[in-house]
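Protocol step 4 of 6.
Sequence for Carbohydrate ABC transporter substrate-binding protein (CUT1 family) (Actinoplanes italicus) entered exactly as in the expression construct, tag removed. Do not edit the line below.
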Amino acid sequence: MFVQRGSSRSRIALAGALSAGLVLSLSACADDKEPSGGTAPASSLAPIDCAPYTAFGDLKGKEVSIYTGIVTPEDTPQKESYKPFEQCTGITIKYEGDKSFETQVLIRAEAGNPPDLAYVPQPGLLQRLVATGKAVEAPTEVAANVDKDFGADWKAYGTVDGKFYAAPLGANVKSLVWYSPKEFKDNGYQIPQTLGELKTLSDKIAATGKKPWCAGIASGEATGWPLTDWMEDFFLRLNGPEAYDKWIKHEIPFNGPEATKALDGVGEYLKNDKYVNGGLGDVKSIAGTEFKDAGLPILDGDCSLHRQASFYAANFDKSTKVAEDGDVYAFYLPGETADSKPVLGGGEFVLAFADRPEVKAFQTYLSSSTWANNKAKVSSGWVSANKQLDVANLVNPIDALSAKILQDPKATFRFDASDLMPAAVGSNAFWKQGTSWITGQDTKTTLTNIENAWPK
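Step 5 output, structure tokens:
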């Protein structure tokens, strides 16, 4: 069965918390501006300028269907953000969320029964959908919005064989380190601006007798995926984006000097008995610690640092204040220098299977800064890479932090590597061999085993 792990992994990360609605209530504790439940009423969204959509003709009474893996409760702010467009144009948006989206959308496309629009969570799936011959290129209005408001790196992920198909929708940032603001203030710790400073901070904390880092990579059948994010972050920082791109495409071997340098760099933290596993055990305990629980020792003072994505905020109890002056917060995982800003993350892309005027009009809206800011006003736990997104519209502090990172002019964004590699590597050997590495396997054997798993 074909499974796209980019969004699967995010849903794995959010599953427990979403059942309690925590993603939508997190910043209610951190910011009194947030309405109860994490979404604002649709009436809070002002009418939009209809001019960009009049060029598509009379759209009243038309319908546009959307198919997506974004389901309850995350679908509520999605639907709310469409209402100004529906009121402006007279178009009705038919929304269908499906947990089996990643397999079913491909089946539907191949069978000739695709939706008008699909929210595709991963560039690899986007490429496979384009290969069915049923997808259509994005209209010029969408391309213009993306050229104006997104970086070239984001446009490249929506491009297949030199043709632009899909504008970015939402985004997440994985290059974060969680910490306790109170601990940092009480001890005079400074947010590190380089990898060298991060190592110095880790040594400083370890010198007090405390293990600074806590980590966990257990996730059922997906055990090992958090380790891949660690390695990808370090690969970007130690080798640069060009080498990273070659590594994904297997233009350089998985077990080459670049990958060796990256995994050994991770090992300076995760295989260091002086650094881990704060509040949880020794180095090997990382393999058996559920990733959703791994950062919680920060709240008890048992560890100081935890590398995990923006979506990790959902795993803290709703009574926890997630903010710069709260119980827990995060900082950007720094690059080798203060001027280098590599960012590892993920996101969704809007792919069309129809080119009717109403579909083009809605694509144009979704690619606009107008939609990004409307979505921000009714959401928590969501962010866009749109450069015109007003951070002030984001009521969740972690969302605001993520947006600032993405909007940094020095930022170089790269999509999660294992999500772009063949499944035999990215969601099999990489996960399993990474877990074996944590429990004692050496770097050379680990990387060679993954290299040997690459399809011939």
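Step 6, annotate. The longest strand covers residues 341-352.
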